Task: inverse folding
């Protein structure tokens, strides 16, 4: 027999989670306001900004890792590994496909922006 969750209990759980989130946001806002009232923060702190090349490199490496993981899972499934099921393989393959397509779209937009800049009159 399938046990189903009572809709009232699910709704009460959602409401309690929402109220907890609202309380956490209020606490964070109060702390940030207090920081502005108490005085200036240290100006000497420098935030290390990452360059676009570094961000793009990290994205490429991340996509590469996702693709490697999908390939390894597919190989393990094909070899008959009992710890790997078809759902994990298919989900990893879809993640790999989506991440590669997203990276391709980013690349296309960067190339288009570069071409637009290069075609601007001086």
Result:
């Amino acid at each position: 027999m399938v046990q189903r969750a009572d809709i009232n209990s699910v709704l009460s759980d959602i409401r309690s989670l929402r109220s907890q989130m609202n309380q956490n946001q209020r606490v964070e806002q109060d702390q940030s306001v207090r920081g502005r009232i108490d005085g200036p923060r240290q100006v000497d702190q420098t935030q290390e900004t990452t360059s676009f090349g570094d961000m793009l490199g990290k994205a490429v490496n991340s996509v590469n890792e996702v693709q490697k993981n999908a390939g390894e899972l597919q190989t393990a499934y094909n070899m008959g590994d009992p710890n790997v099921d078809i759902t994990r393989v298919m989900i990893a393959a879809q993640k790999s496909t989506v991440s590669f397509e997203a990276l391709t779209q980013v690349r296309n937009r960067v190339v288009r922006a570069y071409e637009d800049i290069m075609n601007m009159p001086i």
